[in-house]
Amino acid sequence: MHLIAAAPVVLVATAFAIPLIYLKIKSVKVFHAVALSVTLTVFFMTLLGYVYVSQVGEPVVYRMGGWPPPLGIVYEADSFSTLLATYTAFIIVFVTLYSSWYLGSDTGTPYYYSLLLGLEAGLLGIYYTGDIFNLFVMLEVLGITCYGLVAYYRNSKEAVEASIKYAFFGALAGLSYFLAAVITYASFGNLTMGLVAAESRPTFRLLTPFVDLFTWGNVIAAVAVILALSLWTFTFKAGIFPNHFWLPDAHPAAPTPISAILSGLVVNAGAYTSARLLYTVFGVYDPLSSFYSLSPYLGTVLSALGAFSAIFASVMMLVQNDVKRLIAYSTVMHLGLIFTGLSLGTPAGVKAATYHILTHAAGKALLFMSVGVAIEVSKTRRIPDLKAVGRLSPVVGIAIAAACFSLVGLPPLGGFFSKFALYQAYIEVGRFELVAVLLASSGIAMLGYLKVIYPTLFGSQTSDIETHRLGGPSMLLPLIALIALLVILNPLVISLAIDSASRSLVYADRYIIKALEAFVNYITSGG
Amino acid sequence: MDALGIATILTTMSIVLALILWLPISLRTRIRRTELYLSGEPQSGFTVRVTEISWAVRRVFERIYEILIGHVQTGIFNDWFALSLPYLLILLLLLVIVVTVRGGV
Fold first, then answer.
1. What is the 3-state secondary structure (H, E, C) of A33-100?
2. Which pLDDT score is estimated for A438?
3. What's residue A409's pLDDT?
4. Taking 80 as the threshold, does the pLDDT of residue B39 lie above it?
5. Residue-range domain boundaries for chain A
6. I need a labelling partner for A259 at 20 to 30 A (CA). Which of A47, A208, A269, A429 fits?
7. Which residues in chain B are contacts of A221 at CB distance < 8 A?
């Protein structure tokens, strides 16, 4: 089995095995070790997958059970998906390590890890899959595990309510995408992303006329409905206004390591799926696609929603008293900026959005984990009551400052370079109103981040702090690693990888050809 | 009939059925007002301390915050529907109109 297909399988198998093992083994330490070793193994698997795809220079197709497209489900991984999958697996390793500090000997630990590994499987499945229906399944895997993790503190009314809200909205969003998948199947005759992409481009229909056999009815009108339903779902997953309502409730209610994953990684699934559908599958921004005429309208809607999300969320950050809620609004803001980049339809816009996905994920995970230490020792999420942990633990203090500064966009941290890339992408297409949105939202958000920095770094409350909770490698190592990551994420190091990923998304030819090859090879080899 | 036609007919039928079922209920029942949910806005006391930097912003844009907290980010399901479903409908209408007017390619 290829590594890209094996990674989600390993995670799902372990997720189901953990509750069974718990029937016999009651030591929580065992589950900390199991979860860490599995996430570490999966990270190396995704890394090898990324290296392999980079070396061959084209997407890799894996046929589940040997069934070719369009009969079976395929995983199709290109530079874009493998980069995001590897990055996700990397951050989850450190979040898992941090979880062992956070949870300690909590008796719910086995169930926590069971859901966490299921969540990672869902995320990797979303990135790797080349099948529109399998994407729905993976979105549901991701959703269900997230609902469970948000309600982890099931004795807390807020957590249960936030989880119900999230699940209710998530079910509606899932239904909407399911309807889109049904219409796709009815109109295109298959659900393989690469083949639907071929049917969407007249040039491929000329070269491979057999793909036209699948098409049925008014495809262009059907795609308009498919895109509307899908984008509604994906903007929900990404927390874009007005589908962000669940986010400021759900992210703070979850355990802090899960907040880090939800805000740093899970929302990226919405951005990724939007980009995959718009750029690769239907080629809305590809002049050779049948659906190119939709691009200015979709671009306008997405950039308007993204811009409004950024401004709205930054303004809402200022009046928050709950520190996790403030950071959750910051997520809405950053995803808004990412969508404005994706809506431009240019290679520079996609590159900047991809870059911002990476820097935001690292910054947000670091901020949640470092502020989580302050919450843990202060026993409150109220900002004015947070203890000055930065004065007692320099690593935690630097982590809070570095995460905030990166999210604001101050050099030399990664956030500065990704925001600068967005700025350049806006200028390139003359979208000066988006430049204003970027600067205004960053400026307003700066005041919000200062609300967090001040009490935790410069506050006077240092009494009653449980200093023994401020140490330990399982808490410090993730913070140090993510601080280093924010420094490493500069164009000198990461530019080639992001360039290759964004090119793979914008120019979908190789993605389509590999899917067609898998189909044609099966036919010509006589099955 | 193509996929869109079938989808349109089925959706229209379900909307009509829902309306037929809902109308008699809505005429009989009054809206029940409930307490605000536990989570969601507004949180208890959206006050910002004078010592905080954002205090001035909060004061200057008092009216905007009243609208945002009181009408947009309320944390109540119905308010969310009131904003989110029109977004879906606008998206659908916009794209269908574009396709109809421009012919797609």
1. HHHHHHHHHHHHHHHHHHHHHHHHCCCEEEEHHHCCCCCCCEEEECHHHHHHHHHHHHHHHHHHHHHH
2. 95
3. 93
4. no
5. 2-524
6. A47
7. 4, 96, 99-100, 104
Residues of A with Cβ-Cβ distance to B4 under 8 angstroms: 183, 187, 217-218, 221-222, 225
C-alpha A105/C-alpha A366 separation (Å) is: 23
What's the token pair of residue A435?
Answer: 């430049």
Closest CA to A280 of A111, A78, A114: A78
HEC profile of A252-296? HHCCHHHHHHHHHHHHHHHHHHHHHHHHHHCCCCCCCCCCHHHHH
What pLDDT is attached to residue B105? 41
| In contact, A417 and A491? CB cutoff 8 Å | yes
Q: How far apart are CA B70 and CA A290, in angstroms?
A: 44
- CB spacing of A301 vs B75 below 8 angstroms: no
Q: What is the pLDDT of residues A453-471, one digit of tens each?
A: 988 888 777 677 777 777 7
Please list the ranges in chain A whose pLDDT falls under 70. 1, 209, 211, 462, 526-527
Q: Which residue has the higher pLDDT, A308 or B25?
A: A308
Return d(Cα A300, Cα A263) in angstroms, integer.
25
Which structure tokens are listed for A398? 């630097």
The nearest alpha carbon in chain A to B99 belongs to A221
In angstroms, the CA A219 to CA A230 distance is 16
Q: Give the CA-trace dihedral at A75, A198, A425, A177, to 10 degrees.
A: -60
Q: Return the closest-CA partner of residue A340 out of A207, A203, A200, A438.
A: A438
Rounded CA-CA distance B93/A236 in Å is 19
Q: For residue A183, give how far its alpha carbon lies from the nearest alpha carbon of chain B (Å).
A: 6
Task: Give the number of other Cβ atoms within 10 Å of residue A394's Cβ.
Answer: 9
User: What interface predicted TM-score (ipTM) does this complex get?
Assistant: 0.71
CB spacing of A243 vs B104 below 8 angstroms? no
Mean pLDDT of the B64-93 span: 78
Q: pLDDT tens for residues A420-456?
A: 999 999 999 999 999 999 999 999 999 899 989 988 8
